[in-house]
Specification:
By secondary structure, this protein is an alpha+beta fold. Helix content is about 35%, strand content about 25%. The protein contains eleven helices and 14 strands. It is globular. Bound molecules: flavin-adenine dinucleotide. The site of flavin-adenine dinucleotide (FAD) has 29 residues, from strand 2, helix 7 and strand 10.
């Protein structure tokens, strides 16, 4: 690890002032679960480390204007157990529970997981399917970015060096919506996904047809992906095995995985089709149960 100056700001304003002062030479540290490994491997060598652990008010979850807002410093463990999340967005609480081990989840944060932008992570996939928006603050003001436009490449996002991710805002799904996250883990239960798929299906309760659908995939591209062609296959239709197969095949076409220890690119692409089918069917059954 390279030598670095270490700051522990007490307020968001202090943290933003430090970011403005040090710019590209500084790195924020939330849980540190990814950053410390990258520093030990000398993949990042910041001159200044700004720890966020003393900041108050960024670890809360609250409901406002039809959304649930999760503070950036909320840990994965707190998110999986938050009563508000378990009631309003159970799929998201379940997704945080699928991450790694309790030891990691006790420390890794909601904001750190998004800013880290590893395409193999779980929460970004579900957040993308749920149409979440990310809030960013800098000394010059704040802005909100749809998660859809947030990730740009492997470990790259639109966050500027002077910005702090403060929260993520997630719309509460409309009635008669089913939402699931399925994680395909052929190795161990605490591994990163070989393929992760989140799907939401909103039904017309009168006809049982799909009014809206969102599908997102992880581990099969340089960023978490939406599958708009598969979504188009499903909208306006009724559930059938043929429809699921067609949607799975359409989603598969949109993937661009790499071969690694979790499987060859070909295998991951095939599994993406299988797990899109499964996720859609589960989400659909959930929506049907809600509308009966
Ligand atoms: C062994 C292991 C297994 C794991 N398995 C999984 C898994 O299966 N699924 C999964 O989803 N995750 C998994 N993770 C967690 C994941 O890979 C990241 O380590 C974690 O999400 C990072 O969160 P953090 O709060 O520790 O971020 P940090 O390590 O503190 O920071 C990560 C990056 O984000 C930046 N950053 C942090 N907070 C902010 C902020 N508020 N604003 C702007 N930038 C910020 C940092 O500067 C840094 O660049 C695993 C981690 C480990 C160590």
């Amino acid at each position: 690890m390279n030598p670095f100056a270490y700051h522990t700001p007490e307020t968001q304003e202090e943290a933003l002032a430090l970011l403005q002062q040090h710019g590209d030479d500084a790195k924020l540290m939330a849980g540190g679960t990814a950053l410390v490994i990258m520093m030990k491997q000398r993949l990042v060598m910041p001159e200044t480390l700004i720890s966020l652990h003393r900041l108050r008010g960024l670890a809360e979850v609250r409901e406002a204007d039809g959304t649930v807002q999760l503070g950036a410093l909320m840990t994965h463990r707190a998110a999986e157990n938050a009563p508000l999340l378990r009631t309003r967005l159970p799929v998201l609480a379940d997704t945080y529970r699928r991450v790694a081990t309790v030891r990691i989840r006790n420390v890794a944060t909601v904001g750190g997981a998004l800013a880290h932008a590893d395409p193999n992570q779980d929460p970004p996939v579900t957040l993308l399917a749920l149409d979440a928006r990310v809030q960013l603050a800098s000394a010059g003001g704040s802005r909100e970015v749809p998660l859809e436009n947030f990730f740009t490449d492997y470990y790259e996002t639109v966050v500027r060096p002077d910005e702090l991710l403060t929260a993520v805002r997630v719309p509460i799904p409309a009635p008669y919506t089913g939402s699931v996250y399925v994680k395909f883990l052929p190795r161990t239960a605490d591994d990163y996904a070989t393929v992760g798929v989140a799907a939401t299906v909103r039904l017309d309760p009168a006809t049982g047809t799909c009014q809206d659908c969102r599908i997102a995939l992880g581990s099969v591209g340089s960023t978490p992906l939406r599958a708009p062609q598969a979504e188009a296959v499903v909208r306006g239709q009724r559930l059938s095995p043929e429809l699921l197969r067609e949607a799975g095949a359409a989603a598969q076409q949109q993937t661009d995985p790499i071969s690694d220890t979790r499987g060859s690119a070909e295998y991951k692409r095939a599994m993406a089709g299988v797990f899109v089918r499964r996720a859609l069917e589960q989400a659909w059954q959930q929506a049907l149960a809600a509308s009966s």
